[in-house]
Each structure stands twice: as C-alpha cells, then as structure tokens.
Amino acid sequence: MPRTLEGQITMEKTPSYFVTKEAPRRIYNMSRETKLIVVVRNPVTRAISDYTQTLSKNPTIPSFQALAFKNLSTGLIDTTWSAVRIGIYVKHLDHWLRYFPLSKFLFVSGERLVSDPAGEMGRVQDFLGLKRVVTDKHFYFNETKGFPCLKKPEGSSRPRCLGKSKGRPHPKIDPQVVQRLQEFYRPFNLKFYQMTGQDFGWD
Asked: Which is one Pfam family of this protein (predicted)?
C-alpha cells in the first residue's frame, strides 16, 4: 500500500476483517486512529444472499435449509455455517470493542444504501471529516438490478453499476425457515441495536 500523504485518506475494504479474530488487534497495532466503517444488513437476507452467491459457483451444494439447520424438526440453527455465523454482528463487534472505542465506528445500513444512497454516503463523508461532495445527483435507481447506480453529475461518462454478481434473484426459501431464522437473530439484533445506538429495523 502506498504511503498516505498529508491531506489524504487511505481506505482498505475487506469484508472478512469484521469477522476475523486477528484483525482488530492487527489493525490496532498498525494505527489506533483507524476509522472503521461497517456495512450491515438484515442477517437473514445476508445469509440467503451469501448462499445465493455460493450456489452460483457450485450448483450442487445442499439446500439452504439443510445448511442452516443442525436439526430441522427441532429448529436448531447451525451457527458453524459461515452464512449464519457472520450475521451474529454483536459477537463480532464485541471483539472489536476490546481494541477500539465505539466512536471509531460508523455502522452503515445496507438497506438504506439501496433506498437512500446519498443519505448514507452523507453520513460516511461526515464521519471521515470530508466535505459532502457525493450527493443525490450522483445516483439513479436501476430498475433491472434493483440497486442504485453511480453517475457523474456532469454526465461526462457512463454510469457505474454494481457487477453481475450483485442483484441476483434469491432462491425461494420456505417462509417457516425464514421465520425461524428471524427468531434466532432477534435477540442478537436487539443487543446490536443497543450496542451501536442504532435501530436498523430488522425486527
């Protein structure tokens, strides 16, 4: 990574850092001044999305419910499956808070990034101490993908949309499976809302 010069901000985006046990200590040892931006979405939707991505690469994997449950009849969730485990945000955050105070974090709503990208980007710019340059004129909603796309306000270049791997239709999951997962995540979500001081409205 090149050196960060005066007046510059260096950014690094690796989603797995949030769930990697060694990451908080390593980042703390590198720089205690690091600001951390965590994008979260409804953990049930996140798990289904994770499964959809894996399914696109390996169509022979077991069904979503076969992977999500240790025992379907008792409703016991398999927390060793990464698609489920990642969504227990409060456990991961707890580990990070041993090294960084809450003031070093910005929690961005994945749902609001879709419904109000400019609003969420405004919060990001404020958090980083930047002038608000990215505004609603930089976005338009792409009906086909179901996501906002970026455009240059001067209209000087083609819009930039998320890649082909984003916005894939999710497989149909039994509503009872979804409901059981929602029940499983609810206490973790509520604790996460308390810890962050933000209600993400997943419940």
From this structure: Sulfotransfer_1
> At 83, is the secondary structure helix, strand, or coil?
helix
Q: Consecutive sets of 10 residues in the chain, 203 residues long: mean pLDDT of each?
A: 84 93 96 96 96 93 95 90 97 98 97 93 96 90 80 66 68 93 97 97 92
Tokens of 71: 């025992």
Question: According to the annotation, is 123 in a ligand binding site?
Answer: no
Residue 138 assigned ligand-binding role: no
Tell whether 157 is in a known binding site: no
The CA distances from residue 83 to 44, 61, 78, in Å, are 9, 13, 10
pTM above 0.70, yes or no: yes
CA angle 135, 138, 139 (to 5 degrees): 105
169 is in an annotated binding site: yes
